Amino acid sequence: MTADKGLRQAYLDTVYRVEAKPHPIDIRIGESNAALDKLLQANKVQQWAFVTASNPRSQALSEEKNARRNAEMKSSLQQAGWRTADGVGLPSRPGWQPEHSVLILGIDRHAAIALARRWEQNAIVYGSVGQMPELLWVD
Q1: Of 135, 139, 138, 95, residue with least CA distance to 11
Q2: Mean pLDDT over residues 39-65, rounded?
Q3: For the residues of the chain, what is the DSSP string, one character each?
Q4: Which end of the chain has fewer surrounding CB within 10 Å, N or C?
Q5: Is 36 exposed, middle or buried (0-12, 13-18, 19+ CB in 10 A)?
Q6: Mean of the pLDDT values across residues 112-124?
Q7: pLDDT exceeds cutoff 90 at 80
């Protein structure tokens, strides 16, 4: 997919917050994150992805539909044995709503993109220990 520059910039400006203990971890694309690396190392994994099922193809759905989609995605991840942490995408743009999401521990790039395709997402945030988080376009 070739995203328009405005949509791409909105994704780049979003803060991807993981509800970790004892403090949330804020992920920003292109910025190193020692707290995230520590979480990954504690869980003995190298890779991760931050994914939502909300607002497929950036088309706004009701809060109820988004909640149902995210609950279904999270349930399917848990049934498949993936370890997850709850998260939320916090947009910088006025009028855009936060999107409930999950951090998936140990998932590789190809599996993460396949998951994003299944939930009709334009892009995901992906990374590995010691690397800066990156925005990956699905198509």
Answers
A1: 135
A2: 96
A3: ----HHHHHHHHH-EEEE--SSS-EEE-TT---HHHHHHHHHTT-SEEEEE--SSGGG----HHHHHHHHHHHHHHHHHTT-EEEEEEEE-SSTTPPPEEEEEEET--HHHHHHHHHHTT-SEEEEEETTS--EEEE--
A4: N
A5: buried
A6: 97
A7: yes
pLDDT band (50, 70, 90) for residue 137: very high
The per-residue b/e assignment along 79-112, b for 16 or more CB within 10 angstroms, e otherwise, is eeebebbebbbebeeeebeebbbbbbbbbeeeeb
Alpha carbons 129 and 138: distance in angstroms, whole number: 22
CA angle 7, 51, 12 (to 5 degrees): 30
